[in-house]
Amino acid sequence: MRNSNKPELLGSLRILERKKYIEERLVKKINENTLILNRIINNICNSILSTKNVIKIIRLVKTLKGILFYIHFSYPLKNKVQNPLKNTSFLNKNINLIKLSTEELAKNSKMIQNFRLRFKKESSFTDILNDKIHTYKAISLPIKNYYYSLMKAIDCFSILIIIAETGAGKTTQIPKYLFSLGYSKLGTIGITQPRRIATINVAKRVCMEMQASMGNEIGYSVRFEDVCSVNTRLKFMTDGIMIKEVLTNPTLNNYSIIMLDEAHERTLYTDILFCILKDLIHYRKDLKLLISSATINYKHFSKYFYRAPLFQIPGRLYRVEIYYSKESEPDYVDSVVSTIFQIHLKRSVGDILAFLTGQDDIELTKEIILGRMSSFNYKENEFTIFPLYSSLGFDAQNKVFKKTKHSRKIVLATNIAETSITINGIRYVIDSGLCKLKYYNSMTKFESLIVKPISKASCWQRSGRAGRTSDGKCFRLYTINTYKYILEPIQIPEIQRANIDNFILVLKCLGINNIINFQLMDNPSIESIILSLEQLYLLGALSEKGILTKIGRCMNEFPLKVNLSKMLMTSEIFKCSEEIAILSSILSTEDKIINFPKNNIAELNNTLKKFNLLPKSDMIVYINIFKEWVKSTFSHDWAKDNFINVKCLVKSRYIFEQLINIMEKINIKLITNSSLNDNQGLVKCIISGLYMNSAIIRRINIFKIYSNSQIVIVHPTSCISGHITDWIIFYELIYTNKEYINVNTEIQPEWLLELAPLFYKKSIY
């Protein structure tokens, strides 16, 4: 029924409104059919058309023929827009060609080419369909030879598994192909990566090749950093960020296609995405899912994803020669250093990438290299050494990708350099065969980083770093028999070896309550699930019946471990929310805030005394250091004079600002602890999140963990070292040749009973 309140338009005004309405419908129709035109019409000689596609083309030609009439004759021929094909001779000729092409594609390629030419000649609407033409930088990569068949496969299947060798171009080129074909018109194209550094660098690479501006059509989003806008149509993100989007938008209706890159890494969040997107494909028939990797167990993945087909891209851009050690190396750090100098002496050109286990070994290796350089009278500019590990600041990480003048670049990296990043100039890779992985011990109920042999899949990922920009060589510091008979084909998925508290909390927030029977690609042990459910219940995230509480939902808003999130949730009660936000920021960097000089320990101890108030606590020291740095107006000189790691402080400041925004969002007031000498409320707040990490003294520097009776040693760098106190709370349990506890705080046993009565009994006295 017509709205009587609306004035009726007459004469020319009504005609203009009608014309505007038709134009809007035409624009909408053009946008809807852009993808089909670009994919089928412009590339018809490379397409195998099904009956369904033929019908689509018939409808498309009808619509576009009408648009052509409308544009040429304007409004007076509006009837021809609505019923355009009174004369169908042009249409019938071309439909016959299309149908013929489905049956005899190879024989009739010339006829199809004629069709394309006539279609282009008679249809002058090509410019209308492409409101913006992108010129991409031409790159000769193996994937380029499979462009048409790959795009056809993506069009035909809702789920597609893509395996391409390292250096084939899948990570950077597939997003560009999807964008150029118009998938971005139907919704955002999402690409996930397991690691932050890979996400940022891939986004920047694609942005450069497409000659676009970062943050506009192309953007990236990682933890604590979002470089996207409302105009972003090609979005690179970590898998954790994708999970956050699922929580706020369960149907992901703003996405047209999602690509899970480096799927072989099998992080906790990647496994959740596998399960969510597998089910979502049934609900959203228009959504497409691509699962890509260079090394993947295809049969295992295909079985899980409804027998999804495989698209394989063989061939790598450059050749890589593999060399094995004749015998096992007892000291892998010394072997890495020796191999670096042998390469430098024998090979004239090319940079070196060495894979080590962690930050400590990287710093030790750098120290040894510099020491040998001075001993053997090498020039200072012969080597430029770059460390690369996850807790390193992004600016420092980014230096790895810059060219060095007149010197050989040596990159000392952890396994974060295995996938999705290209360091130009690398010709030699030194593979130690080792890495650090998170393992959760259900007996001790603690997670730790343990040095383990890598998998065969990781071996090939590492060797592939040498063949990205030229032919290369990979020196494996283990025997060929070790590779054949000891290394596993793939690494154990993180879900079966790591702490899954955050994983369970995310599933609960997604409304999944039957965790034990939840069908994942690989399920964690029932024991691990039960321990995590118990932990979340004790933290208040779950009710007695296992239902998500309001506290649990708010805890999931923070991109932190569940114990740090719990501390933030209770910080307002103890009137120390600012201090806890500072502490959580520093601990989240997973970096050392204090630089411990080898030859100046006495001066360091004197400097730290001013930060160390009662009760004795490394955590309070960290908070006071941050506050003093703020008072110094973020001075780098102040940090250097006080033996403080300014990179850690800079990262902490950025994280702190992000946490404050989240706290405001969930209505946690920012309150500062007003008393400098009374930190009882602050320590109680720390206990609320770390109550399970308590230990009782056995003798000086020797403690017994309450929950599992494990004997541990106070780390020498802790302010508790040498101090006699009955009870402490710790944050880190470090496994080396001994078991150390670090980041410790002195506590009173009655506080444990007060804050965790379900976990502790009166027997603690």
Walk me through the structure.
The chain is of the alpha/beta class. It folds into 5 domains: 11-129; 142-313, 3-Layer(aba) Sandwich (Rossmann fold); 320-496, 3-Layer(aba) Sandwich (Rossmann fold); 500-555; 557-750, no CATH class. The chain contains 29 helices and 21 strands. A hairpin with a 2-residue loop joins strand 3 (218-222) and strand 4 (225-227). Helix 2 (51-73) packs antiparallel against helix 4 and helix 23 (577-588) crosses helix 27. The termini are far apart.
Biggest pleated-sheet summary: 8 strands, mixed
Indicate the overall shape: globular
Overall domain count: 5
Q: Count up the helices.
A: 29
Catalytic activity: ATP + H2O = ADP + phosphate + H(+)
Pfam family, one: OB_NTP_bind
Domain Helicase ATP-binding: 151-314
Keywords: ATP-binding, Helicase, Hydrolase, mRNA processing, mRNA splicing, Nucleomorph, Nucleotide-binding
